[in-house]
Amino acid sequence: VRIVGDLPAGRSTVFSLVRDGKKIDVKVMIDERKESSAADYSKLWPGIEVVALETDYAEAQKLPKGQKGVTVASVIARSPSSALGIRTGDVITAINDTVVKSVGEFYRKLNDPRTTKIQFTVYREGVQLSTLALVRK
Q1: In angstroms, what CA-CA distances link 99 with 59, 67, 91, 104?
Q2: Nearest to 79 by CA among 47, 117, 111
Q3: How far apart are CA 106 and CA 70, in angstroms?
Q4: At residue 124, what are phi and psi to the nearest 5 degrees?
Q5: DSSP 61
Q6: For residues 41 and 83, is the Cβ–Cβ distance under 8 A?
Q7: How many other β-carbons are positioned within 10 Å of the β-carbon of residue 127?
Q8: pTM greater than 0.90
Q9: Where would I find the H helices in the chain?
Q10: pLDDT tens-digit profile of 15-34?
Q11: Is 11 in a helix, a strand, or coil?
């Protein structure tokens, strides 16, 4: 993020990305960031960062034995996930009733362009919860 922030507005640059194990180059034009958009966290999709679910943590959270999922590492204030009530430490076990087995799978399901509504199944303190759907615009 710091490298992008240091690029001058009006300049084109190429970023190399790895998606699904393949390297791709993307040319982007750096535009000036307006203060009003910098303060608008509601557009951060979905506003959470997740990490792999560790066995010890799963046991401490009273998840069923062998439960798969990802652990919410952080939630950005005023983001869509924050508005849903997602909390740091929650364990997301499914997206749209489909089990999430890894961090990579979580982001693939979340970023599927065909998916416009997203519902999380979450374990919090031994209780399974379902969120309302997030709607991608």
Answers
A1: 18, 9, 12, 13
A2: 47
A3: 8
A4: -140, 120
A5: T
A6: no
A7: 9
A8: no
A9: 2-5, 35-38, 55-60, 80-84, 103-110
A10: 888 877 889 998 888 887 67
A11: coil
